[in-house]
Amino acid sequence: QKEVEQDPGPLSVPEGAIVSLNCTYSNSAFQYFMWYRQYSRKGPELLMYTYSSGNKEDGRFTAQVDKSSKYISLFIRDSQPSDSATYLCAMSAAGWNQAGTALIFGKGTTLSVSS
Amino acid sequence: DTEVTQTPKHLVMGMTNKKSLKCEQHMGHRAMYWYKQKAKKPPELMFVYSYEKLSINESVPSRFSPECPNSSLLNLHLHALQPEDSALYLCASSQDKRWTLSSGNTIYFGEGSWLTVV
After folding, report:
1. What is the CA radius of gyration of chain B?
2. Does residue A61 belong to the interface with chain B, where contact is any CB pair within 8 Å?
3. pLDDT tens, position by position, A52-104
4. Which of B42, B106, B107 sits opposite A106 (nearest CB)?
5. How far is it, in rounded angstroms, from Cα B69 to Cα B71?
6. Which terminus of chain B has a smaller tally of CB atoms within 10 A, N or C?
7. Quick count: other Cβ atoms within 10 Å of Cβ B72?
8. B100 closest CB neighbour out of A36, A95, A105
């Protein structure tokens, strides 16, 4: 079983839809959770980060972490064509990069929002 | 806009060439990273520098040679690469090696350098 599982999609939705993106993980030691957005041929851009369990909201984006289920989600409300990108979840057991505890990425979900 | 700047954005090199990728950040970060990303794959960590010292080398072949001349600059020297090394090379930085999210210390990526080895 891979440490982080993420459905690659593609996921296609109409403009204005609520989008739900998810990752599951197997390492119960993960405590730091991030979502990155990556446009085609660009570097990843940090969208949201959370520590441990709970919700965090920032504008149209909401990140949720359920450590008991080892499941994290990113919700996008009122989706726009400009949200079309690949969304990568990332997580780590430690708050630093050391051998064996580097930031682990999911494969990314490709989202397409049509106008 | 990202505050991690990478040059060049695109590079095509032959297998016998020597070239370098450059990265610069002016956020005062003391940890800098090189990642490699193949198409439709997540980024893979290559190297970590902490306070200008190499902290992590994730078993990267010696044809990739990192260098951190100062706290703002990070280079990746390339020599005798193979076609399978063609990828997006991402530079990233964080406040320090211990990036504690509670204090807003997270990892920021540059836009990447697209490398094609022919």
Report:
1. 14
2. no
3. 888 999 999 999 999 999 999 999 999 999 999 999 999 887 655 554 346 78
4. B42
5. 7
6. N
7. 16
8. A95
